[in-house]
């Protein structure tokens, strides 16, 4: 007897979620404005966009934010699927460069900030497509109805997309979490709005800094002003101490660890020192930086390894690169704002952190004197990538036997 026959013979009732209650619950995933916009930019990057525009239009309670890109775009069928809640199974295989996982980011990020989400998209050779989630309408009708039409007065907000051959625009309206009840002339509300936009700018400069530089870099604009990248490691500074890179293996996948010890403040100009402090300040930004596909997930954290953030360790910043195939191993959440290292490598991460922290403390105390990391240290454990008799394996440079 096949599983399909068994399923037909079983007695059951349907227990579909209540649309209104479910959406209100999804609004409480813990996004703020900067993490919500970051999630939209992830989608643009996955769609091969080279330019991304964030247009924030202050109008009191009628304030809008529209994120437009020049990516590949979607046809009507693809857009409808993108608007579906849970459009991806996190267990399904996906492209190694994909920045998503759950198929929830567009919707949960948007619902956290607005009650009216409209997406319009243009794909090469296809007619323009658009859909709209109106949460008030969903509550009223009690069904998962995504609307095909929008109000005529909203058309002007898609002008940016009209100039693109292909691309997608995500429009937020009725932004009740940010400007509920505020009037256009409310100066305090406007000032708060502008402060939050500045926080968004600094956050994006940090989260996407590896996408914002280089020959194939993307450009992100906030109200027509380009966002510059913020490099937490000061990689190009002559007094920066980049420690030897290590490779750890998790579930057959490489995790690449690159420790940096930043220059003593005596080696930095006042401008360099201020810039390197980052959005949250020097002490807050020490620790591990977790990247998945070059996108920053965690910016400065000791990952529960038993270390405290203290003044004399503030120069230690450790880059960790993981592939998206390890999302489950690292417990990556929907917001892409948390990561928990697997037990198998916690000991190695702790050892690497100790060495970086010790070097940072020595530099802090000796005003920037270069302290070499000893390659012969018994704590050193670098995995090397090897091939033998057509087989691929990893081994320690101090061992004679590889680990398959």
Concise summary:
This protein is an alpha+beta fold. The protein folds into 2 domains: 19-226, Heat Shock Protein 90; 241-395, Ribosomal Protein S5, domain 2 (2-Layer Sandwich), CATH 3.30.230.
Write structural notes for this entry.
The chain has 404 residues and is α+β, with helices and mostly antiparallel strands. It folds into 2 domains: 19-226, Heat Shock Protein 90 (2-Layer Sandwich); 241-395, Ribosomal Protein S5, domain 2 (2-Layer Sandwich). Helix content is 27%, strand content 21%. It has 11 helices and 15 strands. It has a 7-stranded mixed β-sheet. Strands 8, 9, 10, 11, 12 and 13 form a 6-stranded mixed β-sheet that branches. Strand 3 and strand 4 (129-134) form a beta hairpin. Helix 3 runs antiparallel to helix 5 (105-111). The longest helix is centred in the last third of the chain and has 23 residues, at 343-365. The radius of gyration is 24 Å and the shape is globular. The model is unreliable at 94-103, 371-387, 390-394 and 396-404 (pLDDT under 50).
Features:
Ribosomal Protein S5, domain 2, alpha+beta, single chain, disordered C terminus, 27% helix, 404 residues, 11 helices, Heat Shock Protein 90, 7-stranded mixed sheet
Topology, please?
Layout: H1 3-9, H2 19-26, H3 33-46, E1 51-57, E2 64-69, H4 76-83, H5 105-111, E3 116-122, E4 129-134, H6 135-141, H7 159-162, E5 167-173, H8 176-179, H9 187-207, E6 219-222, E7 225-226, E8 241-242, E9 246-250, E10 253-261, H10 270-276, E11 287-292, E12 295-301, E13 316-322, H11 343-365, E14 384-388, E15 391-395
Parallel strand pairs: 1-6, 11-13
Antiparallel strand pairs: 1-2, 2-5, 3-4, 3-5, 6-7, 8-10, 9-10, 10-13, 11-12, 14-15
């Amino acid at each position: 007897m096949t599983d399909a026959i068994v399923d037909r013979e079983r007695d059951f009732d349907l227990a579909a979620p209540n649309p209104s209650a479910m959406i209100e619950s999804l609004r409480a995933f813990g996004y703020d404005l900067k993490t919500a916009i970051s999630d939209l930019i992830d989608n643009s990057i996955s769609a091969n966009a080279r330019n991304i525009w964030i247009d924030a239009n202050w109008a009191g309670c009628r304030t809008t934010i529209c994120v437009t890109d020049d990516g590949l775009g979607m046809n009507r069928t693809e857009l409808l699927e993108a608007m579906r809640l849970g459009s991806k199974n996190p267990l399904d295989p996906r492209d190694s460069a994909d920045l998503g996982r759950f198929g929830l980011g567009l919707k949960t990020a948007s619902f956290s900030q607005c009650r009216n989400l409209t997406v319009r998209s243009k794909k090469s050779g296809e007619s323009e497509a658009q859909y709209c989630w109106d949460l008030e309408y969903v509550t009223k009708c009690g069904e998962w109805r995504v609307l095909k039409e929008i109000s005529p007065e909203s058309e002007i907000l898609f002008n940016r997309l009209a100039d693109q051959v292909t691309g997608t625009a995500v429009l937020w309206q009725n932004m009740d979490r940010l400007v509920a009840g505020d009037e256009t002339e409310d100066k305090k509300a406007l000032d708060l709005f502008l402060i939050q936009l500045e926080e968004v700018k600094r956050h994006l400069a940090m989260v996407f800094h590896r996408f914002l530089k280089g020959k194939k870099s993307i450009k992100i604009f906030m109200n027509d002003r380009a966002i510059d990248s913020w490099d937490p490691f000061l990689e190009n500074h002559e007094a920066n101490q980049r420690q030897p890179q290590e490779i750890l293996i998790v579930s057959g996948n490489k995790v690449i660890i690159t420790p940096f010890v930043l220059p003593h403040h005596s080696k930095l100009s006042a401008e360099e020192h201020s810039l390197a402090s980052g959005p949250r300040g020097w002490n807050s930004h020490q620790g591990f930086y977790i990247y998945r596909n070059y996108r920053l997930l965690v910016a400065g954290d000791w990952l529960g390894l038993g270390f405290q953030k203290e003044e004399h360790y503030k120069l230690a910043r450790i880059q960790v690169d993981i592939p998206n195939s390890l999302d489950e191993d690292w417990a990556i959440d929907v917001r892409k704002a948390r990561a928990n290292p697997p037990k198998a490598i916690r000991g190695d991460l702790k050892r690497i952190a100790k060495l970086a922290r010790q070097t940072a403390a020595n530099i802090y105390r000796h005003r920037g004197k270069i302290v070499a990391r000893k390659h012969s240290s018994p704590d050193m454990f670098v995995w090397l990538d090897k091939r033998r008799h057509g087989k691929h394996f990893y081994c320690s440079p101090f061992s004679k036997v590889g680990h398959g």
